[in-house]
Design brief:
single chain; alpha+beta; 2 domains; seven-stranded antiparallel β-sheet; 5 helices; 30% helix; elongated
Length: 170
């Protein structure tokens, strides 16, 4: 009997058994694994309501680019769409439409509004934002990004949205 050969075979068998047992044992869960599983299963409290309108549906209601102004879409997701308003390469304002189904409190601020723009309740939010509520559901907002873009400019651009088309959106 050849002992070195038996030892070599025995070493290979033992090493194989060792590798198999360590590779096949379940790994111990990490400190974030349980939280990840819980958040993956969670369905309540999500940011966007199931009934919210797709953001791509809003694009056709934005004002067209005209008179040297450029409209650049920047974000589109369920319940929201946004575009930059630029002129001569400078960003003047952000234009946005959001579905208040996802944020019911957004519509509440229009309840006591005494101001109207194009027949819809309007609010001034700080010194840089003007918003209207269309069909008690869709918030249309213009946000100044340049000091030269005034509240009057925001109102003018709100009127350029296809508000009647948006009001008919289901």
């Amino acid at each position: 009997m050849n002992f070195p050969r038996v030892r070599r075979i025995l070493a290979v068998v033992l090493l194989s058994v060792l590798l198999l047992t360590t590779a096949c044992t379940p790994k111990e869960p990490g400190r974030f694994d349980q939280v990840q599983q819980e958040s993956s299963r969670q369905k309540t409290g999500q940011a966007v309501a199931k009934q919210a309108t797709q953001g791509s549906e809003f694009n056709k209601f934005f004002p067209p680019a005209e008179d040297g102004y450029e409209r650049v879409y920047t974000q589109e997701k369920k319940g929201f769409a946004e575009a930059k308003l630029k002129k001569d390469g400078q960003e003047l304002a952000m234009l946005a439409i959001s579905d208040t189904k996802s944020i019911p409190t957004a519509a509440a601020k229009f309840a006591n509004s005494s101001k109207q723009i194009a027949g819809y309740p309007a609010v001034e939010i700080g010194n840089t934002q003007t918003a209207i509520l269309v069909n008690n559901r869709y918030q249309v907002k213009v946000l100044s990004r340049s000091p030269s873009f005034t509240a009057s400019d925001r109102e003018t651009w709100l009127k350029k949205f296809d508000l009647n088309g948006l009001a008919q959106l289901k």
